[in-house]
Fold each of these.
Amino acid sequence: MAELDLSHEKEFKELRACLHEVEGLSEFFKIMADETRVRILQLLSKSELCVFELSVLLDMSLPAISHHLRLLKVMKLVAHRREGRHVFYCLDDHHVEKLITVAVDHYKEINGKRDK
């Protein structure tokens, strides 16, 4: 292993300390790595929807949508409210909406599809 230049010791300690900020973040990205879950988040960034509406929009079964929503709830990406027999879903907070917006903008940028 290479020796540490002592003139950078303080900087290295600070850099190492900042690694704690991202501990566990890979679990978040694993959840986000699924196209269906990203599509659900995109739809929920536009409107509050129930499981049935999501299943129609995504052309998927109710159990499949429910499975994805469970995973998104565990990561606190979506919230829900009950209205009679229906459960409506929305993004959990403005941070999630911001994540989706930034990701969409970045994707458009790297693919040359920037809005003009």
Note: Strands lie at 49-50, 78-83, 86-91.
Amino acid sequence: MLYGIHQFFCVFENDAYLPHYKGSTFRGVFGRALKKVVCALKKQECGQCLLRQRCIYATVFETSVSLTVPEGSRTASPPHPFVIEPPLTTETKFPKGSSFNFNLLLFGEIGSSLLYFIYAFEQMGRIDIGKKINNSRSKFTLKEVKNESSLIYSAADKKLNTANKLKILSIDDPANLLDKKIFLKLICETPLRLKFKNISRSIRPPVFL
């Protein structure tokens, strides 16, 4: 499976107040911005939309109606093909002009649609985010996007470099692991919600699994 890790560099245009854990805040506003950018039938529900199997928004946020789960799979619905990695700082107050950087991970074929994500995040900066300060929320400017050391986007010239570097994510053949005991230790650094048999459980850090 192909995947890409992209670094986004932003600057707040005014004072900002964000929660301790910032992932859900950015994910929600990003969803609104992406739908505004790519949705052709904005009044149509994704589940009934004829374009759902070709729509980037449906693939990213309504994955269960866009992709078909293989018969016999133990997965009730396919996972979303993206992860937003906000900074792990618990700082909540950001003065005007301060930087705010995060990573965007894309998995599978959606990685070839990075330019739509960049445009959506640029538009997202114009949408209010965080808590209100003096009756207004914060806005930010997307300055640069990089993939490793390669510059993909710069606000200085508004140019996009389409040479997107993707890597192959692979694991050993499970047949080679049948006779081995494998122990995994997971450390939850941000809140986690698990769902099994329609029962949800929320886990708040720090937790060892």
Note: The chain has a mean pLDDT of 84.
